[in-house]
Design goal:
- The complex is a heterodimer of chains A (about 450) and B (about 450).
- Chain A has about 450 residues and is of the alpha+beta class.
- Chain A has 16 helices and 14 strands.
- Helix content of chain A is about 45%, strand content about 20%.
- Chain A has a six-stranded mixed sheet, with helices on both faces. A five-stranded mixed sheet of chain A has the order 10-14-11-13-12, with helices on both faces. Chain A has a two-stranded antiparallel sheet with strand order 5-6.
- In chain A, helix 2 crosses helix 8 and helix 10 packs across helix 16.
- By secondary structure, chain B is of the alpha+beta class.
- Chain B contains 16 helices and eleven strands.
- Chain B is globular.
- The chains are: A alpha+beta (about 450), B alpha+beta (about 450).
């Protein structure tokens, strides 16, 4: 429990901005530079690390992120959760400093070190003041955590216990039960379909963690993203400083191809007041040529917050749900297209019918001319909002770097959205979404 | 050794404060004016990107509600998107989206606020739209009925199916027996069932007026032009006589209170809430600042006392936390809480949490750990400059809670002046039994055949 988050005293009107936009969109989909003049500098360091840098001296802040091909898709068979565990333990003792000393030293500098890990990526990000003493101290600690983690056995055991407690708790929550079963239904035994279990966490040994770290946290696959108040020369030194002591690393096999699932409906009993409904199928990978038609279409279908078709049909016209959304989540292998909502369990069937009809109608007919125009105005004219902070810029740089997207990704974004036609949206949705592969999971439906 | 860290800490904190001053834009920024009808306008120029964050805050929230119509402040917030004399339902969102922007709103006990994040060029239209819905809202019966269903779904999602939210809701309802913070912002389900369109209309007429609101803009704007636009669109509005606010003060608590909440879950949870003072006088209060630092020392970073002692060292808990916010319109509590680890009980966790406060009461805190929290606080103030949203929220929340936006700097200075002795003194003074309320989540097995306990609710329209 985080008491900080306890207090529901402030109620934002809509929550799905968080689920839909953050997960699907903010990382890259609609990442766009406010600063039409965003100048991304890119080079490959001597050790093979790829570096992406935007110089900005307006604020005395520096943001640095280092990502690796070390996400949960790299979990070995029977060790689901290993990638997350390894990533989580990086700052639990490193370079002769224990976890408390590391946290204290960072705090004494006013710095924040955080991490994120998903199917594909695992990485650390640092936010620090750009003044020399703070910056140098914080970067030295980040380097220690990245290059000299010790994975103390006692901390591993403790974190395994905490992870198991958290898994058992998650297995009582309808949204989390549903998310896991949905991934399994979409991907079967593919790494994207697996979730950590009590058994797989319990099986993790320190040797597993060390092996995962040594194999995946390597210079040749490091992507270093830097935004803020340093010069190019300083950025070059920072990239080398952070990754210079990492081994080059051996090549990795590609992540397995995804097999398309057969259409299915799974119902899971649960005593909740609301049904949690998940509908979707695997669709897009990063760099997909259909990216723009699919993303523009999805804005109209269920990505555009209050103005999407799903919100209008499910929420505005019928009052069935507080939150209903759709998104495409492009990943290294085809990530999901997903529709989600929660509704009072007695009306789950009615709500699902509306979702089905809305989706079917969109696939059959595509967007109207006015819908397409509205979507373009939001995505093109709102471009500046997607990159109006160092933090957002860093997120975009990191995704461009990790997935090897072209450097003109941001500068060409608006014209590529403008070029999308209604016929392209309709054709892409018809070709990429199929009733034969549509998977549904319903938790707590009557 | 401590002495060395002490001197480092002081030097750093001072240097950071200077950096903060340097990082903040010109002295006069933000700019403020007040229209003759009472509407205040606060503009912070931030020209990093061609965007504008536009917010309208109303000095009314769930604490101004009455029993029987709890949740009306939040429900009205939803209705503000449902059309005016000029706009059809949903048209507000459509205009914002077509301008390239996004919009939303939020309601708390203390306030109700609306915002749009837009390209700077779209700001004039946003000001026009907000002005329109301040006075010209149309609450249609059918729209109301549908939106009420949406809010009921929201309550099911956020509270009824969330054991931790249920525990928190009931903790507040027990810690406060008279003060309006005892009522949930989203409202009791039965009050939602009984809500009528006229309840929303009454609420709107009573509170939505220029003299009960303020506009906050942060972004790539010229403050003079914003003042002109606000005057153009709001200047003609007449102030509305505001009702006398009768906020029931909480009578002194004279004995410990304990409640248990049963809900489907795996692990128990615990929350402890003590009545403590809030910040009433920015200049002369001392204890609220000391309590803020106490919360930071207990739970301000990964190696602070609670996680270090209870999660990492003794491993009694899998999660722990401390929470205190000194700024509020109403009354405040200092909370501790957590989830016991397997093999440990909520009783053990309660004892261990309270032992950490007692340790500070008995032994005090080191200057190094105090300085660490101050450093984090000052750094956070610099990091805030990376977000127009966070900057606008800081201004808006201070104003809503009865302070002025100008107080932010002074509050920071005051926080930095707190001594270790003052932290020890508040740890001694406020954590007895008589002002404590304890809530326990008692986890129940998940019976898939069980029907939900909350009765299915139909609308009565």
């Amino acid at each position: 429990m985080r008491t900080h988050n306890d207090s529901p005293q402030v109620i934002p009107m809509i929550r799905f901005f968080r689920s839909a936009l953050l997960r699907a969109v903010s990382v890259l989909a609609f990442a766009t530079p406010a600063l039409a003049n965003v100048d991304i500098q890119h080079w490959t360091a001597a050790n093979g690390a790829r570096v992406y840098f935007v110089e900005s001296h307006v604020l005395p802040i520096l943001d640095v992120q280092v990502d690796f091909d070390a996400g949960s898709a790299r979990d070995p068979e029977g060790r689901s959760g290993l990638a997350g565990m390894t990533h989580g333990l990086l700052d639990s003792g490193a370079g002769g400093l224990d976890e408390d000393a590391l946290a204290e030293k960072l705090s004494d500098l006013g710095a924040r070190l955080s991490g994120s890990a998903d199917n594909d990526r695992a990485g650390l990000s640092l936010r620090t003041l750009a003044s020399a003493r703070e910056r140098e101290g914080a970067l030295a600690l980040m380097r220690t955590v990245l290059t000299a983690p010790e994975f103390p056995a006692a901390v591993l055991e403790r974190e395994k216990s905490r992870a198991i407690a958290s898994l058992r708790e998650a297995d009582t929550k309808p949204d989390q039960i549903g998310a896991k079963r949905f991934a399994r239904a979409l991907y079967g035994d593919h790494p994207y379909g697996r979730s950590a279990t009590v058994e797989s966490i319990a099986a993790i040994t320190r040797d597993d963690v060390l092996a995962h770290y040594r194999r995946h946290y390597v210079a040749s696959r490091a992507v270093v993203s830097i935004v803020g108040d340093v010069t190019r020369e300083q950025a070059e030194a920072i990239a080398l400083q952070l990754t210079g002591e990492l081994p080059a690393g051996e090549p990795l096999p590609p992540i397995a191809e995804v097999t398309m699932p057969k259409a299915s409906t799974e119902r899971i009993a649960h005593p909740a007041n609301q049904s949690h409904i998940f509908v979707g199928q695997p669709v897009t990978r990063r760099g997909d040529p259909d990216f723009f038609p699919l993303q523009v279409g999805n804005y109209i279908l269920g990505g555009g917050g209050f103005v999407s078709r799903l919100t209008k049909e499910v929420r505005e016209k019928r009052g069935y749900a507080y939150s209903v959304y759709s998104y495409f989540s492009p990943q290294r292998q085809p990530g999901p297209f997903q529709i989600g909502l929660q509704t009072q369990r007695a009306q789950a069937a009615d709500a699902l019918k509306v979702v089905d009809e809305t989706l079917a109608s969109f696939i059959a007919n595509g967007p109207t001319a006015d819908e397409l125009k509205a979507a373009k105005r939001n995505l093109v004219d709102g471009f500046s909002l997607r990159l109006d902070s160092n933090r957002k810029l860093l997120d975009s740089l990191a995704a461009i770097g990790f997935y090897g997207l072209p450097l003109d990704w941001l500068s060409k974004f608006q014209e590529r959205v403008e070029a999308v036609t209604a016929a392209q949206v309709k054709e892409a949705f018809q070709r990429r979404l199929s009733a034969d592969h549509m998977v549904r999971v319903i938790v707590a439906g009557d | 050794m401590d002495l060395r860290r002490f001197s480092n800490g002081i030097a750093l904190c001072g240097a950071l404060a200077l950096m903060l001053a340097a990082a903040s834009p010109a002295r006069a920024n933000p700019f403020e004016t007040t229209l003759s009808n009472g509407l205040r306008v606060i503009v912070k120029e931030d020209r990093r990107a061609p965007v504008a964050m536009h917010m309208v805050w109303y000095r009314v929230g769930a604490m101004d509600e009455n029993d029987g119509t709890t949740g009306i402040a939040h429900l009205l917030e939803h209705m503000m998107f449902k059309g005016t004399k000029k706009l059809k339902p949903g048209e507000f969102n459509d205009i914002v989206a077509r301008a390239g922007g996004s919009d939303n709103a939020f309601t708390s006990h203390d306030y109700t606020a609306y915002f749009q994040r837009v390209p700077a060029a779209a700001l004039p239209r946003m000001i026009e739209l907000e002005a329109d819905r301040m006075r010209n809202l149309v609450i249609d019966d059918d729209e109301f009925a549908r939106e009420l269903k949406v809010v009921m779904e929201e309550r099911r999602l956020r509270t009824d199916d969330q054991p931790q939210s249920q525990m928190h809701e009931q903790l507040m309802a027990s810690a406060f027996i008279a003060h309006p913070y005892r009522r949930p912002v989203i409202g009791w389900m039965n009050d939602l069932e009984n809500m009528r369109p006229d309840d929303a209309r009454d609420w709107y007429r009573r509170w939505y007026a220029p003299n009960n609101a303020y506009v906050v803009v942060v972004g790539d704007v010229d403050h003079k032009k914003v003042f002109e636009l606000v005057k153009k669109h709001y200047g003609h509005m007449k102030p509305v006589a505001q009702p006398v606010r009768k906020v029931t003060a909480e009578p002194p608590q004279t004995g410990e209170r304990r409640i248990t909440v049963k809900a489907p879950a795996e692990l128990p949870q615990l929350a402890l809430a003590w009545k403590v003072p809030k910040l009433s006088d920015v200049e002369n209060d001392r204890e609220p600042y000391a309590l803020e630092l106490l919360a930071g020392i207990l739970d301000g970073h990964a190696a602070s006392r609670l996680p270090r002692a209870l999660v990492r060292s003794s491993q009694i808990a899998v999660e722990v936390g401390a929470y205190y916010d000194s700024t509020a319109r109403g009354e405040v509590t200092f909370m501790l809480g957590g989830t016991p680890a397997k093999g440990h009980t909520v009783d053990e966790l309660e004892k261990a949490l309270r032992a950490e406060v007692k340790r500070i009461a008995d032994e005090g805190v080191s200057v190094a750990e105090l300085e660490r929290i101050k450093t984090l606080t000052v750094a956070a103030q610099i990091y805030k400059l990376d977000s127009t949203y966070v900057q606008a929220m800081e201004i808006g929340r201070l104003e809503a809670s009865g302070y002025r936006w100008q107080d932010a700097d002074r509050m920071l200075e005051k926080l930095r002046s707190v001594t270790a002795d003052e932290v020890q003194a508040v740890a001694r003074k406020f954590f007895g039994n008589d002002t404590l309320t304890v809530a326990v989540l008692d986890p129940q097995p998940l019976d898939p055949d069980a029907k939900p306990r909350a009765k299915p609710t139909g609308l009565r329209h």
